[in-house]
Amino acid sequence: MTKPNLRTRLFLSHMIVMVVGLSTLITVGKVYTPRLFVLHLEQLQGSGFNVIRVKRQLVDGFESAWSRGAFWSVVVGGTTAIGLSYWVSKRIMQPLIQMEQITQRFAAGHLQERVPENEIPELNRLADSFNRMAHDLEGVEQRRRDLVGDLTHELRTPLTVIEGYLEGLADGTIEPSSDIYQRLAKETVRLRRLVNDLQELSKAEAGYLPIQLQPVQIRPLLVAIVQKFSDQLLEESPTLKVDCPDTLPQALADPERVEQVLINLVGNALRYTPEGSITLRAWAEQERVWIAVEDTGKGIAAEDLPHVFERFWRSDRSRDRHSGGTGIGLAISRRLVELQKGTIEAESEVGQGSTFRFSLPILVERPKLLSSLRDRESPESAYPKSKL
Questions:
Q1: Helix, coil or strand: residue 212
Q2: HSE on the CB side for 192, CA within 13 Å?
Q3: How does pLDDT run across 131-152, given as a tens digit for each residue?
Q4: Long-range Cβ contacts of 201-209 (<8 Å, 24+ apart)
Q5: pLDDT tens, residue by residue, 157-186
Q6: Is residue 361 domain-resident?
Q7: In percent, how much of the chain has pLDDT > 70?
Q8: Range of the domain at 181
Q9: Overall number of domains in the chain
Q10: Which of 240, 319, 242, 244 is nearest to 276 (CA)?
Q11: Residue 103, SS3?
Q12: Which of 355, 345, 261 has the alpha carbon at shortest distance from 299?
């Protein structure tokens, strides 16, 4: 059996309330009103009025008048109640029907659809909730399209290069040589790095990356990063420096993930700093340890700065694509910092350099917790002290 819709149920509920009210009014009036009138006549008789001869006529006349009045009251009141019930039901149902139509169009792919404001507060709150959800879903869909488009764009270049070389080798227009094979291997490495970065970013955004929080000494970690990159730099490359006090408090973080963030930031700084210096700075502020990577490179334009942590974003695509970056490192870094309860920021000025900094919570000294964390600390997370 099909249930009646909301409009019908609202209308019937109003009608039931009206019928109960009118029935109660008529019943009470029919039973008690004549008795009260007779009692009033008896009081008048006791006051010196002679109403015995006309008592019956007065009661009958009163009942007749009351019945006619009740009849017209029911007619007028019932008609008014029916009209008001219909109007109220329609006023409530109209925005709900409109919302249903909008949700159907939204489900069909029209993600720009929004529910207009309503004068009924409860329905207006429902409309606001739907609009917020629709805005978020529209953003998710746009990011999905951007990701597919950017991924297609990134994969096309190395695949085109590999395809061209393989076709040339197959038809004999290109002579096989070690240089050709090295180029093919280089493009394959680019593909593998892109796939690995995408997998890492996907895990990070989904929260699947394991984060092992433990006490971390920041200065030895910065020194190790500088030594790792210094071994690979040429003489004309920028100099790497560490600016970190020895008394810096320990951070509660995952040392491997912090190292991964720093490698991404330092690698990004080296890519855009052909000469000058790159400084790894750390300091404590309130309940946070801040780590910054400051360079004297080319800098980032003010209009581009809000987008630096977006996946596949590049301020100069043609240059970046040949510089070895995948455009995902900063997005991965942001998510890794967020998973460790920190924040990451960027400041830059064209021609003056850039500063990328992120925060980590300071370790709260609790003897039991600290001892258990030290017992779990792995040898890989213990970095030797440096004289830098």
A1: coil
A2: 6
A3: 888 888 887 777 677 767 767 7
A4: 201/311, 201/328, 201/331, 201/332, 201/335, 204/332, 204/335, 204/336, 204/339, 205/335, 207/339, 209/257, 209/336, 209/339
A5: 788 888 888 888 888 888 888 888 888 888
A6: yes
A7: 70
A8: 134-206
A9: 3
A10: 240
A11: helix
A12: 355
